Amino acid sequence: MNEISQNNGPLTGLKVLDLSRILAGPTCTQLFGDMGAEIIKIERPQKGDDTRFWGPPFLKDGNGNDTSESAYYLSANRNKNSVAVDLTKQEGQLIIRELAANCDILVENFKAGDLARYDLDYEELSKINPGLIYCSITGFGMTGPYAKRPGYDFLIQGMGGIMSLTGKPDEEGGEPMKCGVGIADVMCGMYASVAILAALNARHTSGKGQHLDISLLDCQVAWLINQGAGYLVSGEIPPRRGNEHPTIVPYGTFPASDQSFIIAAGNDSQFTRMCEVIGAGELATDPRFAKNTSRVKNRLELIPLIGEYTCKQTSGHWLKTMEEAGVPCGPVNDLAQTFADPQIQHRGMAINMAHRNNAESGVSLIGNPLNFSDTPIQYKKAPPVRAEDTRGILSKHLGLSEEKLNELEANGIIECLQNKS
């Protein structure tokens, strides 16, 4: 499979040197790749990105056998070129420096200070490329008492407070729970992408690049949003409320005769219409519940009363009648139901891409949610197998000959797909 060709995405022409692995950094660089930037993903020879081994499930080949590509790795690495270089060796470090000299952006998520050992830190690389936007993604930041610690999503969710807000209340036997996906990693990748694009805009004026210090813990605290602000304003530690909202009632899951469904009545008029639909008009005029502020104070009385009405009909009945009445509501879908949803299908949120390890079926992936009227997202290349593009990229960008590439591979500096058994 050939390296990615140029396209007309909004970031076409930008070159990104991606020294990241796992999820936060790869999420960021996949976004850039989807938008047309050329992504040069650096991987360890013979090993590659850690997440290649984080399975099952793994992509199946045409015979139904597991390949080396885990679903976890596939989720964040499309539209990239895989180049396997050993950073611990001087010749490998030279290759990285030469690539960085011609790139706009570098993204890395080594522990704070690790790349300085190889003279691949911002201070050194900015000497050869003053316009380089160098983004360091770490668990705790480049400064502070925790700077040297490794950071993992689960640890960050616990330390950053989101677990204390997630799960059933104590009185229902609940305990703090992490989110079902690596949301601390993903949101850090999102914040990093915004920071990088802002730094690129600043470079238009100054002509200079800069170092971006983005940490998982900082980003986790930032997206505590209203719950975090509520604590800072009131000094009160918010309890876990399960599926309920801290300041809107009713806003949660309710029982139907077959399964639970969601009601999200965001204002008083929606609450009144909900009461009419379920046949509980008296609740709308009850002074305990008529206004949202009163409903929040009296939630423990109101929520069970609503459930006594909703459990009399199926979820399908309530979803239909509430939607017709303009009451926000919805199902609680599993992933099969999610990807079968006609709106999700219409919006292209499930895609299929050709993959060298399964020529017949390709690989199914989650689509990009960004929609541009003039420079659309393009799916040019499936997540690469390890070292898939080493020869092509080093030949194109560094002008290395076949003889030199063979020498580097023989010395263990690089790995090339073509010579793998």
Give a description of the structure.
Mean pLDDT is 95; it is low at 1-6. Helix 1 packs across helix 7. The protein is 38% helix and 17% strand. The protein folds into two domains: 15-222 and 344-419, Crotonobetainyl-coa:carnitine coa-transferase, domain 1 (Rossmann fold), CATH 3.40.50.10540; 251-255 and 260-331, formyl-coa transferase, domain 3, CATH 3.30.1540.10. The chain has 18 helices and 14 strands. The protein has helices at residues 24-34, 71-74, 90-100, 122-128, 153-159, 162-165, 183-206, 216-222, 225-234, 268-278, 281-285, 292-297, 299-310, 315-324, 335-340, 342-346, 390-398, 402-410; strands at 15-19, 38-43, 58-60, 66-70, 81-85, 105-108, 133-138, 210-215, 251-255, 260-264, 329-331, 350-355, 358-366, 414-415. It is of the alpha/beta class. The protein starts with 14 loop residues before the first strand and ends in a 6-residue tail after the last strand. Strands 8-7-6-1-2-5-14 form a seven-stranded mixed β-sheet, with helices on both faces. Helix 4 links the parallel strand 6 (105-108) and strand 7.
